[in-house]
TrEMBL record, chain A:
UniProtKB keywords: Amino-acid biosynthesis, Aromatic amino acid biosynthesis, Lyase, Pyridoxal phosphate, Tryptophan biosynthesis
The organism's place on the tree of life at top rank: Bacteria
Role of this protein: The beta subunit is responsible for the synthesis of L-tryptophan from indole and L-serine.
Catalytic activities: (1S,2R)-1-C-(indol-3-yl)glycerol 3-phosphate + L-serine = D-glyceraldehyde 3-phosphate + L-tryptophan + H2O
Annotated HAMAP family: Trp_synth_beta
Enzyme class name: lyase
Coiled coil: none
Entries under PROSITE patterns matching the protein: TRP_SYNTHASE_BETA
Stated name of the protein: Tryptophan synthase beta chain
Family, as annotated: Belongs to the TrpB family.
EC number in record: 4.2.1.20
Domain Tryptophan synthase beta chain-like PALP: 57-379
Pathway per the UniProt entry: Amino-acid biosynthesis; L-tryptophan biosynthesis; L-tryptophan from chorismate: step 5/5
TrEMBL record, chain B:
InterPro entries in the record: Aldolase_TIM, RibuloseP-bd_barrel, Trp_synthase_alpha_AS, Trp_synthase_suA
Active-site residues per Swiss-Prot or TrEMBL entry: E45, D56
One Pfam family, short name: Trp_syntA
SUPFAM superfamilies xref list: Ribulose-phoshate binding barrel
EC number: 4.2.1.20
Annotated organism of origin: Flagellimonas chongwuensis
Protein name according to UniProt: Tryptophan synthase alpha chain
CDD domains in the record: Tryptophan_synthase_alpha
Family: Belongs to the TrpA family.
Protein function: The alpha subunit is responsible for the aldol cleavage of indoleglycerol phosphate to indole and glyceraldehyde 3-phosphate.
Molecular function GO labels: tryptophan synthase activity
Keywords: Amino-acid biosynthesis, Aromatic amino acid biosynthesis, Lyase, Tryptophan biosynthesis
Pathway: Amino-acid biosynthesis; L-tryptophan biosynthesis; L-tryptophan from chorismate: step 5/5
Length: 394, 253
């Protein structure tokens, strides 16, 4: 049977691989040769699961959203990743990778961050383990996301501004990669999404796969079956989606719906809908769909949600799109903001704007009344309060 | 015979210079190449600018960004270079990241290189295995030498594999760094240079990264066949413009 997981060389169909300069080869190779065996070690599993339970607060609830379901006349469940420690699913991956770094004998951590969520999740686990932490963040993002910068600093991380290029997430990623080139021996790079060279997309997906693993057993309890009709998640780089889809990838009867940020509209020139606007190419060491000029220069995406404005998409998702396994929907800023506010009013939950994109599909995408639709509520909206205030003039 | 291979057979240390096409001004490309040849440089690496040059330090990032802002792109560079072989005979290498080449079309890109008289390519993020499986036949068909990098962290086993796949020279990155990050060489570098020299590789090595003056050039070429200067030359162009390129080359050797 055809598999939608990565092959042993890190390819999802034609997407993935490790398109890295030789300077990064030893770092990635060390990780590639060791990550699977480390993840299989009983002591690793035990510590990982213990921390997910006691520190992150897992399992996160699978909540039947009754009023939302009534409104859209279908059965909507929310996977409550917003209840994770630090406020989003990001910490599942950083817990896994900090333990990985320890097993590999690394004593210094670097990370990139856009809005600051992954930076905070990384700074958190570094504090937990007492390991030095440097987070690269675009100079523009530092100005836009002051509370998260303060959080990282309180947690003991050094936040270094990325001043090159467009001074946002892709440039922070470039700077983190450059740091890794300059510090190849003692440093582990914690990438925050299912992007980058092999084995990162596969490894991060595995750490996030706890999401769909829990959905299966929780749904069994609530609906008497492990498989929903659909699982829905927003996609920037795609880590929460990879986690929510993971155990359903090779179960064709479960529909996979990936929701991208259309920004001000797909044809507006201000969008982050990579599947619609991207072409195959190389970004951050991975062959995938990315937004670029005809000449192959990477362009700057736009979304009201800082977590979705990455110019590429993880290779798993590029393959889900190209193969037709996944249904890709894009949602505008306005659609997402409206859906976010609606969740507040109907369910008493303030979602992250990223997650609001996934919630917004119900307006146009109709489901049957007896369909079970699981939406991954990837993060909470605290960090977005200022955006909500400005948008709704609260 | 390929001009790079021919040059490498000469009994001399090779001085190679890198610059970003389209910098400082969009139309400086041809003049820089001609003046470098006149000044006695042995090999030229023409940098194809990229929006996200992740192996490069600030100097080349900035020249690359400036070149793009000046309007440089792949098609324009080929246009600028179309008559270059009427005036120069120096070996020419295009150096850049893989994505712009992929978007141009690898076959089409290599074919244009051959028409123009480009002798080789350096694409640091095109991995060895992918090159061998997917692109080697295309490069070979168009007479292009593909140059691979090694670093102090590259294992002996992999260096041998790279040596096997190479014809021309091996680009020996002097230290674990991005371009222009380090100045001067310590014992770590000299140990590394000696270690590689003792491996008796079939391809000569040309050292790059961290070479900025005659001292570092001499140190690097004690055991290696040659050395490459990039960031230091770009800094010179930034400060002095393109009118006295010979003076820069003279201070190296």
């Amino acid at each position: 049977m055809k598999s939608y997981h990565a092959d042993e060389r890190g390819y999802y169909g034609e997407f993935g691989g490790a398109f890295i300069p030789e300077m990064l080869y030893p770092n990635c190779e060390e990780l590639r040769q060791n990550y699977l065996s480390i993840m299989e070690e009983p002591s690793f599993k035990e510590e990982f699961n213990q921390l997910l339970k006691d520190y992150v607060g897992r399992p996160t609830p699978l909540y039947f959203a009754k009023r939302l379901s009534e409104k859209y006349n279908t059965k909507i469940y929310l996977k409550r990743e917003d209840l994770c420690h630090t406020g989003a699913h990001k910490v599942n991956n950083t817990i896994g990778q900090i333990l990985m770094a320890k097993k590999l004998g690394k004593n210094r951590i670097i990370a990139e961050t856009g809005a600051g969520q992954h930076g905070v999740a990384t700074a958190t686990v570094c504090a937990l383990m007492g390991i030095q932490c440097v987070v690269y963040m675009g100079e523009i993002d530092i100005a836009r996301q002051a509370p998260n910068v303060a959080r990282m600093k309180m947690l003991g991380a050094e936040v270094r501004p990325a001043k090159s290029g467009s001074k946002t997430l892709k440039d922070a990623t470039n700077e983190a990669i450059r740091d890794w080139i300059n510090n190849p021996v003692d440093t582990h790079y914690i990438i925050g999404s299912v992007v980058g060279p092999h084995p990162y997309p596969e490894m991060v997906a595995r750490f996030q796969s706890v999401i769909s693993q829990e959905i299966k057993s929780q749904l069994k309890e609530k609906e008497g079956r492990e498989n929903p009709n659909y699982v829905v998640a927003c996609v920037g780089g795609g880590s929460n989606a990879a986690g929510a889809f993971y155990h359903y990838l090779d179960t064709p009867k479960v529909g996979i719906i990936a929701v991208e940020a259309a920004g001000k509209g797909i044809d507006s020139g201000e969008s982050a809908a990579t599947s619609a606007l991207g072409k195959i190419g190389i970004i951050h060491g991975s062959k995938t769909l990315l937004m670029q000029t005809r000449d192959g220069q990477i362009t700057e995406p736009y979304s009201i949600s800082a977590g979705l404005d990455y110019p590429g998409v993880g290779p798993m998702h590029a393959h889900l799109y190209a193969s037709g396994r996944g249904e890709f929907i894009s949602i505008t800023d306005d659609g997402a903001m409206k859906a976010g506010l609606e969740l507040c009013k109907l369910e008493g939950i303030i979602p992250a704007i990223e997650s609001s994109h996934a919630l917004a599909i119900f307006e146009d995408r109709k489901f049957n009344p007896d369909d079970v639709v699981v939406v991954n509520l990837s993060g909470r909206g605290d960090k977005d309060l200022q955006n909500y205030i400005d948008y709704f003039k609260l | 015979m390929n001009r790079i291979k021919q040059k490498l057979q000469e009994d001399k240390k090779i001085l190679s210079i890198y610059f970003s096409a389209g910098y400082p001004n969009l139309d400086d490309t041809v003049k820089i190449i001609q003046d470098l040849e006149k000044s006695g440089v042995d090999l030229i690496e023409i940098g194809l600018p990229f929006s996200d040059p992740l192996a490069d330090g600030p100097t080349i990032q900035e020249s690359s960004t400036a070149a793009l802002n000046n309007g440089m792109n792949t098609a324009l560079l080929f246009e600028q270079l179309k008559d270059i072989r009427k005036t120069v005979s120096i070996p020419l290498i295009l150096m850049g990241y893989f994505n712009p080449v992929l978007q141009y079309g690898v076959e089409e890109f290599c074919s244009r290189c051959e028409e123009i008289g480009i002798d080789g390519l350096i694409l640091p993020d095109l991995p060895l295995d992918v090159y061998k499986e997917e692109y080697k036949t295309t490069f070979d068909k168009h007479g292009l030498i593909n140059v691979f990098l090694i670093t102090p962290q590259t294992s002996d086993e992999r260096i041998k594999a790279i040596d096997d796949a190479s014809e021309g020279f091996i680009y020996m990155v002097s230290s674990a760094s991005t371009t222009g990050a380090k100045q001067g060489f310590g014992t770590e570098q000299s140990d590394y240079f000696e270690r590689i020299a003792k491996m008796n590789l079939k391809n000569p090595q040309i050292v790059g990264f961290g070479i900025s003056n005659s001292d570092t050039f001499d140190q690097a070429t004690k055991s290696a066949k040659g050395a490459i200067i990039g960031s230091a030359f770009i800094k010179y162009l930034t400060a002095n413009g393109v009118d006295n390129i010979g003076a820069f080359v003279k201070q190296i050797r």
